[in-house]
Amino acid sequence: MSMEGIEQNPIVYDLMSEMAFQHKKVDVKAWIDLYSTRRYGKSVPLVQDAWNILYHTVYNCTDGAYDKNRDVIVAFPDVDPSFISTSLESYQNNDKPTLRRSILQQDSGSYERPHIWYSPSEVISALELFIRCGDELSGSNTYRYDLVDLTRQALAKYANELFLKITKSYELKDFNGVALHSRKFVGLVEDLDSLLSCHEGFLLGPWLEDAKQLAMDEEQAKQFEWNARTQITMWYDNTDYEASLLRDYGNKYWSGLLRDYYGPRAAIYFKYLLESLENEHSFRLKDWRREWIKLTNEWQNSRGKFPVGSNGDAVYLSRRLYEKYLKNHSGGVAL
C-alpha cells in the first residue's frame, strides 16, 4: 500500500492491512458487518444495512477507471461551455435501469470528465440509514466521520447535476436559469463547507498549521505554508492566463478550502457565463482563466488562519442538508 497521506476510505486500508494475516478467502459481507461493529463500538443493524449498500455500489467499481474523484466542485472544468455536451446513457442490471450518466466532453480531450459507476439513489438510501442511526451512534467519532463523508459524497454528485443544469441553461440562452442554478451551486458549496467543519478529519487548518510547525523561523514558515497551499490548488508553473496541468491535484473536500477557494472560483466562472448571455458575446475563456489564476495566486500567498478543531453538530447538519437537497431527489441524472 502507498497511501500518500490521502487519509480517506479507511475501510479499504483496514481490509488490506488485515489481509496479511488471513489464510483463507475472506467473506467480505461478513467482514463488513463485523467492521461496522468494531468501528462504532456496537452492532446496529441499520448501519450494517447501509454498509452493505455501499459495498455493492461505491466500493464495487469494475470498469477499470483509475481516478474516481473528479467532481466539479474540486476539479472545475477549464472549458468554454460551448464545448460541453451532454449525453445520457442507460445501464441495465437484471433488466432494471440502475444508472444514468451525464458525460462532459470537450474537444481537446484534456478534461477528465466526471465519472460514476453506481446508482446515486442507492447511495442516498444508505445515507438515509446512516442518518437514522444518529441518535444511537452520535457519540462515536468514527460514525460522525463516516456520516460527514457519505453526506459529502452524495452532495458532491448533486453539485455535478447542478453544473449540468447551468451549462444546459447556457446552451439554451436562458439567463434566469443560469443565474438560479449558479446561486444554488455556490450555496451548496457553502453548506458543504459548514458540514465538513463538523469533523476534524475534514479541516484545512491542520494541514496548514502542521506545515508551519516544521519551520525553523518565520520566513521558512511562510514558505512552508505557501507550499502547502500550492500543493492542494495549482502547482506553480502557470502563466497569467494558462493554468498549470497540475491543478486540483489533491481534490480535497476540506472546510475552509471550499468556502475560500472552490466556491469563489466557481462564482467567477458563472459570472462570465452570465456576462456572455447578457452582452450576447462568446464566453471569454482567457479572461476567466486570468481571473481564476489571480485568485489562486493570491490565495496561495495569503496567511489567513483556519480552525484546527471541529465546530458544529455533524448529525444535525447531515440531516438538515439531506432534507434540503436529497430527500426528494429522484436519483436520476448524475455525473
Adjacency order of strands in the biggest sheet: 1-2
Radius of gyration: 21 Å
What ranges have pLDDT less than 50 throughout 5 or more consecutive residues?
86-111, 330-335
Q: Give the helix/strand class.
A: mainly alpha
Organism: Linum tenue
Pfam families: NAGLU_C (PF12972)
Domain Alpha-N-acetylglucosaminidase C-terminal: 31-324
Protein name: Alpha-N-acetylglucosaminidase C-terminal domain-containing protein
How does this model look, in words?
It is a single chain. The chain is mostly helical and 335 residues long. The protein is 54% helix and 4% strand. It has 12 helices and 2 strands; from the N terminus they run H-H-H-E-E-H-H-H-H-H-H-H-H-H. It has helices spanning 10-19, 28-40, 45-56, 120-132, 134-137, 141-171, 175-196, 205-213, 218-231, 257-279, 285-301, 314-326; strands at residues 88-93, 96-102. A two-stranded antiparallel ribbon has the order 1-2. The longest helix is centred in the middle third of the chain and has 31 residues, at 141-171. This is Alpha-N-acetylglucosaminidase C-terminal domain-containing protein. Pfam families: NAGLU_C. Residues 31-324 form the Alpha-N-acetylglucosaminidase C-terminal domain.
List the helices and strands and how they pair.
Blueprint: H1 10-19, H2 28-40, H3 45-56, E1 88-93, E2 96-102, H4 120-132, H5 134-137, H6 141-171, H7 175-196, H8 205-213, H9 218-231, H10 257-279, H11 285-301, H12 314-326
Antiparallel strand pairs: 1-2
Helix pairs in contact: 2-3, 3-4, 4-6, 4-12, 6-7, 6-12, 7-10, 7-12, 8-9, 9-11, 10-11
Domain Alpha-N-acetylglucosaminidase C-terminal: 31-324
Protein name: Alpha-N-acetylglucosaminidase C-terminal domain-containing protein
Pfam family, one: NAGLU_C
